[in-house]
Design goal:
Layout (H helix, E strand, L loop, with lengths): L2 H8 L6 H7 L5 H8 L5 E5 L5 H8 L3 E5 L3 H10 L4 E3 L13 E7 L7 H11 E14 L4 H10 L7 H4 L14 E12 H9 L2 H4 L3 H9 L18 E2 H5 L19 E5 L2 E6 L4 E3 L3 E14 L4
Parallel strand pairs: 1-2, 1-4, 2-3, 4-5
Antiparallel strand pairs: 5-11, 6-11, 7-10, 8-9, 9-10
């Protein structure tokens, strides 16, 4: 990717801030605990975007300062992340005092940094013994339909950066050796929400209309692992379906608890609701498997 395109993609997300915040997956709390431990810390979230990772960190009792250069993304962060302090800034120019924080994290952002400059800035704001931990949600390509999605789309979203990252290279002379860990999780997607996830990526946001149409065509129309209405194998909590856009439930009293209580509209599709499960059992949806990949290194010296 040439420098001009890199910069254009790097600064493209503000135009899609609402979509980004609604469709990007969250992060497992186990990954946050691995990075930061259980004791409350003062944490900088660099390139914090709309605050998706900041909110998880704050929910575990840490004081979070979210540093985000894009006004649109930062505005969404402020609106959706009570208790998180948001400031304008970047990885290359962190508006905090020297030695003022216990940890710096970067969720889905490290691949956009000017690494040599950023490493020095991160070390500057960290106290001695503080830690730096970049983290990504990436597609789990050990799942065949997810791997096929990657092959068909030829994604250029930067999340392959961790696969190419040489932990022996480290984060420069002011940091110790790099550790790494992975955490597997999944989110539920329909075809429509999977398309929306793709539409939140920088390569889509910056593409012309023809390229956007080609990208959308790569999304499988019936992902492997869907659930058939007459071959139900899994109970899906209603709270997960609400994230997929469920807005109406027609519940009618029926004499038997194992008889569907009604239908739920999700886009143009209908799903059966079983009151005894408090769940929707449907079709044309799939678990989209992801790996949360975290790297961690301690600042050495003063």
């Amino acid at each position: 990717m040439d420098a001009e395109l890199f910069q254009r993609r790097r600064s493209s997300f503000g135009a899609a801030a609402d979509l980004y915040d609604s469709i990007r997956p969250t992060y497992p709390v186990e990954a946050v605990r691995w990075l930061l431990g259980d004791e409350p810390r003062r944490v900088v979230d660099l390139g914090a975007g709309t605050g998706i990772f900041s909110r998880v960190v704050a929910s575990l009792g840490h004081h979070v300062v979210a540093v985000e250069p894009d006004e649109g993304m930062r505005g969404k962060l402020v609106a959706t992340s009570p208790g998180v302090s948001a400031v304008a800034g970047s990885a290359e120019a962190i508006p905090l005092a020297e030695g003022s924080v216990d940890a710096v994290v970067a969720a889905q952002a490290y691949h956009w940094f000017d690494h040599d400059v950023a490493h020095e800035e991160i070390a500057r704001v960290l106290r001695p013994g503080g830690v730096f931990g970049p983290i990504w949600n990436v597609r789990d390509e050990s799942v065949e339909w997810v791997a096929e999605l990657s092959r068909r789309a030829a994604f250029e979203d930067g999340t392959r950066a961790w696969r190419d990252y040489d932990v022996e290279r480290g984060f420069g002379p002011r940091f110790g050796p790099v550790e790494s860990a992975q955490f597997r999780h999944s989110t539920l997607h329909t075809v429509e929400t999977l398309v929306a996830l793709v539409q939140s990526r920088s390569y889509y946001i910056t593409a012309d209309d023809a390229a956007k149409a080609r990208i959308e065509e790569t999304v499988p129309k019936r992902p492997e692992g869907c659930y058939a209405i007459r071959n139900m194998t899994e109970r899906i909590p209603l709270r997960d379906w609400r994230k997929l856009g469920v807005t109406t439930v027609d519940r009618k009293p029926l004499p038997l608890s194992d008889i569907p209580a009604g239908l739920v509209d999700v886009g143009s599709r209908k799903f059966l609701v079983y009151p005894n499960y408090d769940a929707i059992l449907g079709y044309n949806c799939a678990h989209y498997y992801a790996l949360t990949v975290a790297l961690l290194a301690e600042k050495i010296g003063s």
